[in-house]
Design brief:
mainly alpha, Serine Threonine Protein Phosphatase 5, Tetratricopeptide repeat
Length: about 900
């Protein structure tokens, strides 16, 4: 065997030498293919080399360059980084790797890549292009000039200056620079592509197509050029030709990000939003910073109604491309959808400033501005924006309608109606503008003109039930009840299930004291559509109005059962349960709805409400925090969140939420008041004072700021200074709510008689002011002025028999005076508010004192569970348990009373415990 060894070694060495020779030959062949434009063949050769020599840095470098030529930037990035790790010279790798990073949107990372690199033209141009992409044109300009100084006529720098000229809206200068670069290298792909882009921007589609086709002639497998041709066709509305061009791109570069992105663009243009989203998610999974995909995905999510996701994507794009017009318009639309017109205007107004005068011809931008101004109730600016848009598109009916509505907001009824009439005349069948004209005449109470306008609509749209329903409304406003009924019935002959007409007829039936006739109408419609949720809901509403909650429940439960995929019926049912005191049923249903619709704001709001009503304050705060994410521009949601956080004991969180609410809506009295109250509770008097004075600064002639400063001073026991501020606030706008703190300041100064006299004098002049009367009654009750308190509570209940606070407190007062009416009043309060701890406690303690422990204990236990920190309620529970014979239970509850902090009669409790 040994004599064969030299021969075997020789053969192995020969094979190794052959492999090395073949690898070099394959690389040479790849270079040849590259020169011939056969990039795919070159790539195959290089892959074969790397199968044998995975550590061949030169092969990795060439493969990366080839991938870059085809537009496969991810593969290029991977191979070029491997080449760098294998020791290939930086001056060979970094220019190509930098281009790959630029194409992926990795602009900030380029600075790190080139750290320590010399100021060579290639590196300078890379840094300049990154700066240009990050909206730093001055820096980019300096770097391009430095590159040209180092190497005059350097094509990459000329190309960059062309891009810079394009950014500065100098397309002709940009084209001259590209031509200058092409003179040096007529077949440079980047130069040819930018030339095509410039020609396309100037509307010269034919020559742009020639430029792109020249690239394909030079490099048939250049995916980017095929994509550019697809985009050229897409821009011109030639969808089928765009698809054909993209098919060629897919053939030479299957799965490449450019191809996937362009398919998403075509899907978006054709309204296939779900398909577009699927394509874009593929791109963003591997290239999360590909800004065109980020922008398009934001537009798609907006179209799908996913406003939170749209906002996140557009925010990311605008961070990299501030004031980009299309993205700004999309973001403004999201803000309007979220009910934040001021945020929309922050995006829109800079684009309409003199510096952005070129955009004054952007109809879409002007229309968005008009809508935002309308929602902000700045009707003069809304009218100006809509009028400018209507001048650009004089035949656009809805723009004239928008002008009309803006003028109506300004109180200019004549001009408003003129614009609406013009809009209605432009629409072939009256349409929305015609309806708005009718409604405007109704608003101005010009019933003859309203009727004439609706009769014109009737001639244009005789088969539309909406028109006859509208006509019935006009006739009803004109007191032509018979005519209105005939119009509503005509609407139903056109569409027997047209709910607005059904509801209007039902209302007429109720007005005429025929509730059964109204019910029969709905039931007749229901026989036509037994599962119609809207009709079932209407029947429930009718039953509720008739005081038949059990029947209403049947209809609502049927609507939810028969329409399991529809959200609205189940939401109605959950709210019905809440109103009826069935919180646990509401909670179970809310949890189910939210689990099935996790991104729906309505289900999240319902869940938070049910959690609040069942005492789950931490869970409610968590749900409201999620709702705040779904509705990021809603100050009202932040207010609700602060309340839930406060109930859960999270004072810091509550303050943070209030500050966020004020950042969203600076003039929000509830948030200003709540924040100052929390600061006062924490003895944060300087901050509270500063907050109150900020309110004064914003609204010097409004009372709130002075009232709030008075609250701060009163909390510091500076009653005299507080009284002066309260009097100033009351002098600016006399009202019961402002008299109440003034009353408190007078009492703090020992002027209780004067304080009560001020309230009584006010109530003589304003006898219907129930909140102020209730405050006086409660104050008298606290002073143990029982006859006077009783008089005020009874007066309240005369005018408002369902006032739960008055019922509850008067029941307690009657019990103190051994009045037999105490139980009846407490029962009435309990029926109205069965989940309120104070109401449960009052009824339970009255029953306990009267010996009915069987009813008292469950009520008091429920009250204590809902208000576990309330020592008085727990004391009542303990004493009721003791009276019922449950000594162990009584001891347990009374010991908890002593462990708490807010109970004054501790000696009394200790004495009871000593006897147990």
């Amino acid at each position: 065997m040994r004599r064969w060894l030299p021969a075997v070694l020789a053969a192995a060495l020969a094979l190794a030498g052959c492999a090395r020779h073949d690898g070099a030959a394959q690389m040479a062949q790849a270079h040849q293919y590259q020169l011939q434009g056969k990039t795919r063949a070159a790539i195959i050769e290089m892959k074969n080399v790397l199968q044998q020599e995975s550590g061949n840095g030169a092969a990795r470098l060439l493969l990366g360059q080839l991938y870059l030529e085809t537009g496969d930037v991810l593969s290029a990035d991977k191979e070029l980084r491997r080449a760098l790790a294998l020791g290939e010279a930086k001056d060979k790798v970094l220019p190509a790797l930098g281009r790959a990073m630029l194409l992926q949107g990795q602009f900030e990372q380029i600075a790190e890549l080139l750290k320590g690199a010399p100021d060579q033209p290639a590196y300078l141009v890379l840094r300049a292009n990154a700066a240009l992409a990050q909206n730093q044109p001055e820096l980019a300009s300096r770097l391009f000039e430095l590159a040209l100084k180092g190497q005059p006529g350097y094509a990459g720098a000329l190309l960059g200056q062309a891009r810079l000229a394009l950014m500065r809206q100098q397309p002709q200068a940009a084209l001259l620079l590209v031509e200058q670069a092409l003179q040096r290298d007529p077949n440079d792909l980047d130069h040819l592509r930018l030339k095509g882009d410039l020609l396309r921007l100037q509307g010269d589609g034919a020559n742009a197509l020639l430029a792109y086709q020249h690239i394909i002639h030079l490099r048939p497998e250049q995916v980017q050029a095929h994509v550019d041709i697809a985009n050229l066709h897409l821009q011109a509305g030639r969808i089928e030709q765009a698809k054909a061009a993209l098919a060629l791109a897919r053939k030479v570069g299957p799965g490449q990000l450019l191809v996937v992105y362009t398919q998403a663009l075509i899907d978006f243009r054709e309204g296939r939003l779900a398909a577009a989203l699927e394509q874009l998610q593929q791109v963003l999974r591997v290239a999360p910073d590909h800004m065109p995909s980020v922008l398009l995905c934001g537009a798609v999510q907006l179209g799908l109604g996913a406003y939170q996701q749209a906002e996140q994507l557009l925010d990311k794009f605008l961070a990299a491309n501030p004031r980009q017009v299309y993205a700004s318009k999309l973001m403004a639309t999201v803000a309007l959808k979220n009910g934040a017109p001021e945020q929309a205007l922050k995006l829109i107004e800079p684009l309409l400033e003199p510096a952005g005068a070129a955009r004054q011809s952007d109809i879409e931008l002007l229309t968005l501005a008009g809508e935002a101004y309308m929602r902000s109730r700045r009707f003069d600016k809304a009218a100006a924006a809509f009028e400018q848009a209507s001048e650009l598109a004089p035949q656009a009916a809805m723009l004239h309608a928008a002008v009309g509505m803006s003028r109506m907001g300004m109180g200019e009824s004549g001009r408003a109606i003129a614009e609406l009439e013009r809009a209605a005349g432009l629409e072939p069948k009256g349409g929305r503008a015609g309806v708005l004209l009718v409604l405007t005449h109704l608003r101005t109470k010009n019933f003859p003109k309203a009727l004439a306008a609706v009769q014109q609509l009737e001639r244009q749209q005789g088969g539309n039930p909406l028109v006859f329903n509208l006509k019935g409304g006009v006739q009803l406003a004109s007191r032509d009840v018979a005519g209105a009924r005939a119009s509503f019935e005509r609407a139903l002959t056109l569409d027997p299930l047209y709910l607005p007409a059904l509801e209007n007829l039902a209302q007429l039936d109720l007005m005429e004291k025929h509730p059964e006739q109204a019910r029969q109408r709905y039931e007749a419609a229901l026989r036509r559509a037994p599962k119609n949720a809207a009709i079932l809901g209407a029947l429930a509403k009718l039953a509720t109005a008739q005081g038949k909650p059990a029947e209403a429940r049947v209809w609502l439960e049927r609507a939810a059962r028969d329409n399991p995929e529809a959200l609205a019926p189940s939401l109605l049912l959950a709210h019905f349960y809440l109103r009826g005191g069935e919180q646990q049923k509401a909670l179970v249903l809310a949890q189910k709805l939210q689990a099935g619709n996790p991104s729906n704001a309505d289900t999240m709001a319902l869940l938070a409400e049910t959690q609040t009503q069942t005492g789950q304050h931490e869970a409610a705060a968590d749900s409201l925090a999620k709702l705040a994410v779904l509705q990021p521009a809603s100050a009202a949601v932040r207010m609700r969140l602060s309340t839930a956080q406060l109930s859960a004991g999270d004072v810091d969180g509550a303050m943070q939420s209030l500050r966020k609410a004020l950042s969203l809506q600076a003039d929000l009295p509830q948030a200003q008041t709540a924040l100052i109250q929390l600061l006062i509770a924490r003895a944060g008097y300087p901050q509270a004072l500063a907050q109150a004075r900020e309110v004064q600064r914003r609204h010097a002639e409004a009372p709130l700021g002075y009232k709030l400063e008075g609250d701060v001073l009163l909390a510091q026991q500076k009653a005299e200074a507080a009284l002066a501020l309260y009097q100033r606030a009351f002098g600016l706008a006399p009202s019961g709510p402002l008299l109440i703190p003034l009353h408190a300041a007078l009492k703090a100064l020992g002027k209780g008689r004067e304080a009560n006299a001020r309230l009584l004098d006010w109530l003589k002049q304003h006898p219907a002011d129930q909140p102020t009367r209730l405050h006086l009654a409660s104050s008298l009750l606290a002073e143990q002025a029982y006859p006077a308190a009783r008089e005020q509570f009874e007066r309240i209940l005369q005018d408002d028999p369902a006032n739960v606070i008055a019922l509850n407190d008067l029941a307690w007062l009657y019990q103190q005076q051994k009045d037999e009416r105490a139980v009846a009043l407490a029962e009435r309060a309990y029926k109205l508010a069965p989940a309120t701890p104070a109401v449960l406690d009052t009824l339970g303690w009255i029953l306990a004192e009267r010996g009915d422990q069987a009813r008292a204990v469950p009520l008091l236990r429920q009250a204590s569970e809902r208000a576990p920190e309330a020592g008085e309620i727990r004391y009542h529970l303990g004493m009721s348990l003791l009276k019922s014979g449950d000594r162990r239970g009584a001891r347990n509850e009374l010991e908890k009373v002593l462990a708490g902090k807010d109970f004054g009669r501790r000696d009394e409790v200790k004495a009871v415990l000593a006897r147990l």
